Amino acid sequence: MKKLRVAVLGCGRIAAVYKSALEHLDGLCEVVLAMDKHLNRAQAFAAGFAGCEASDAVEPEAFRRKLTECSPDLVHILLPHHLHCTYAVTALECGVNVLTEKPIAITLTDADRMIAAQKASGKQLGVIFQNRYIDGVRRVRELIRSGELGAVKGAFSTLNWYRPASYYECDWKGRWETEGGGVVIDQAIHSIDLVRYMTGMEAVKVQGHTARRILQTIEVEDEADAAITLENGAVYSFFACNYYTMSSPIRVEISCEKGTALLTLEEMEIRWNDGRREVIHPDSAAGTAVGESYWGAFHEIQVRDCYEALLEGRAMPWTPQDAKKTLEIVQAIYLSARVGSDVTL
Ligand SMILES: NC(=O)c1ccc[n+]([C@@H]2O[C@H](COP(=O)([O-])OP(=O)(O)OC[C@H]3O[C@@H](n4cnc5c(N)ncnc54)[C@H](O)[C@@H]3O)[C@@H](O)[C@H]2O)c1
Hints:
This protein has helices at about 15-25, 40-45, 60-70, 85-95, 110-120, 135-145, 175-180, 185-200, 300-310, 320-340; strands spanning about 5-10, 30-35, 55, 75, 95-100, 125, 150-160, 205-210, 225-230, 235-240, 250-255, 260-265, 265-270, 275-280, 345.
């Protein structure tokens, strides 16, 4: 069976998760190129894969030449947020499919540039939102889509995590220009995406507030809240902060006419109004996560899904336009906080 030739760009913290995933997926892919501006990081990644080249030729033109020379089928972009756009566009222009980490980009304009490059290339552009693969998340999405849970009446998400000052001691975190924001765009974007994904609804109005309350060395927000009105009028209440004492399990709840679904970390509890109760734990195969526990265990499942789609000539799951919709809510929270009023989407 044909294997995908895969390249990885960015060999920092999250790369450990990919290293493990790609080792497990060796029946579907051959890792041919690992790149990082720090050669030793690229080498450490490449060392796990026979025949994989390590390179620090990462200036956009050198990157273009490297892709042309190496001709991978897909490049994983695991870079600081502000670099997703430049490298995704370059890869697509070279005829290489792209699977980038979240967020798609830090501005909607950059997201549009990526979408335009994808259309022009005829190649595919995917964005990682691995939590969509949590077993209970998929079940609730289906129950809402089929009408079994009835109409969505409201939702909330809370994220109380711990990021010490040392987390921000790098060349891109904690700054608007490079991270594109703080706890909303980096951490709580997953919760926003889950509410969109499970309800199947878009936001129409956002009233948001952000603050930098505790983490004094950063310029972006360490706390945010918002009232997000969904297209049927239901209100999604959003809260996130990065200054709790630990990274407590996230909670995402969807309240529907016939019951309520509560996700706590990766466990879903559905309470039906008629008294039934259903608890969905992640498949035991997902318990093999590496890296930080709050990254969850679902990267490998999304990557596998994307590889299988490419190998079978299908579209990768969900579109960059979909990932841009989640970024629109993030940006609406920031805009609303800045102007001090509602933002209509
Ligand atoms: N899906 C998730 O749950 C999850 C979790 C963690 C991180 N992420 C995402 O992964 C991405 C990377 O985050 P991280 O925590 O690994 O960051 P990181 O800073 O640890 O790693 C980034 C790597 O990119 C390299 N780099 C920087 N500029 C480069 C360039 N021009 N060319 C090549 N390499 C360059 C750095 O040397 C570093 O090794 C971000 O988009 C982040 O949001 C996602």
